[in-house]
Fold:
Amino acid sequence: MKRTMQSAGMTAIGLIAALGLGAPAHAQGLEEILVTAQKRTENLQDVPIQVTAFTAQTIEDAGIGTTQDFVDLVPNMSLDDSYTYLNTFVVVRGVTQINNADAPVAIVIDGVPQNNQKQFKMNLFDIERIEVLKGPQGALYGRNAIGGAVNIVTKQPSNELEGFAEASYGNGDAWEITGGVSGPIVEDKVMFRVAGYYKEDNGRITNTTLNRKVDTIDHDYGMRARLTVVASENVNLDFRASYQDFRAGGLYDTSLPDDSANTFLPPYSNIMGETWGDILELTFKADVELPFATLTAITGYTDLTENNRGDLDFTNQGVPFLFDLGVGQGQDLDVKLLSQELRLVSPDDQRFRWIVGAYYIRTDRQLLTRAFIDLTGSTAQIDDPFLVISEDNNNDAYALFGQFDYDIVDGLVLSGALRYDEDKRHQDDLVNDLTRKHTFDSLQPKVTLTWNIDDDRLVYGSYSKGFRSGGFNNTGTMFEDETLDNYEAGFKTSWLDRRLILNGAVYYSEVKDFQFFYVDVATASQVISNIDKVNIWGIELEAQALLTEGLQVFGAVGTTDSDIKRISLFPGNEGNKTPKTTSWKLNAGFQFRQPIADDLSLFLRMDYEHRGKKYWQIDNRDVQGPLDLINARVGVEGESWGLYLWGKNLTDEKYYADYNPREFSGHLLGLDLGFLAQPRTYGIEGRVRF
Structure:
């Protein structure tokens, strides 16, 4: 494997030299990135995991302002908007997010897990770093990290007074302002940071029946405040509070004839959909330096509310068996989360390094679903429903975990980890006065052998297991927990004094009880069920090169080949792809920054994304064709300011962010449902620091 890796690296080096792109002697290499992917600070190139990391500078340069923006830049990962303002489906290496269930990736902000599907779509402001880990990460991140983990780190308070302000305006009369300030309250002892944003958007997608834009944002604003306290030489305290309030469009699916995944029509329902809610988050972190380790305690609390109202038949027609009357719907969701983690981390400068910890999270989730006969086109009719489903889901999850790294000999590291998760689920059916209980648990081991060939090259092999908890449907049926065994081999290399980085991996996963979602037409019930056995394999390759001073090129490719081996519920679909799977994804682009005058620089960046075919459901009848998306930014920058023109989806590709075939959507008229993605967007942005 060493000869193969070196041959690939030397081929790339030779290509660069042949193109005349060798490095001038004075040029610096690519930025070294420090990450906390394994709960301790490490150089990204030393971590034996496929990690895509975005620094604060990269986040600014790429115009990353939302979760969607960075997911679009990560191979073997997708994020699909659907249904409501906060609702998304994330897919990593073929493992899929589904309605009313836990995410397939652990989402962690400043060390606090986000345990609800609605928390993944967020506005990213004042962010220090984003780390995307692929492959099961349950040994350290716990339940639901079956496909990977996303670690988001916000900016720390500073010991000097500083601040920033940004403003953006785009088509659809969309505008956003962001700003923040940071500094000391007591120098070297108590420091603060406050940042916030406000955005509005008049939309770009028109409902042809109502002649109104459906993708509007009436308002979306948020604020985050942090306070760090150096309590003593060995004790650091960190307090964080954030709040978000929003009202926006939603439920603007288009009803379509069968097999219309590549026929793009605007929505035409006669009820205007809407979503509104708020999110409050409070966290506390304490780091205590002990003689033998660092003790970290992290407490998190979240109160999330999202309500929606809209059409149910998604047409401007009536439903025949309801005497040609229309039907509307609405849901009220309230989620409260309380988590606590305790962790001991040994010093980094030991031959044997270790981490041990314990974790607890309490989740209270209440969901009220109602349907109503539509006589007036008003969502106020929901107060006179003909169908009510009210459920209260609670669960207590506990975990114990540990990890070690042992230097067998110089350059050869054996790593092992083990986590035990226990998830106690409790559901109260408030309509039928029924109670259901079940406990799901799993051991999640991970073993990695890493060979550091030299300071710039390593290879690794790993085995890991992931676990996603099971639960109850609103019909009372239970779905099983999902487990995944992953086998992976990879490499990380740097060449030409870090002017060229080449990383890659091949992975193979065996999944038991793969979770998927559909609507039972007979009972109009939302159902989560299981595919008995799925195999997934693929490759990932990533390259970055600093061609000349100020000119950087980058590219990455990921493939996902999923294969349904056995499915008892819908036999006959063996051999098909799993739902929402994209066969392969390619990212490529360049970035150029060049001084053009004293204290003035030109900035150019282009990002190209190719998405292969997307398989929407287990029958593979509805397949969206390949997509090519182009984003670009151009601007001028001073020492403390910047002015940019930006554009996304510049070729105005038409596609569905989500698509639900009639066989699995439960549509009252037997139609497919497509949720249109955003068309071309463009605008101007300015920022200043002080």
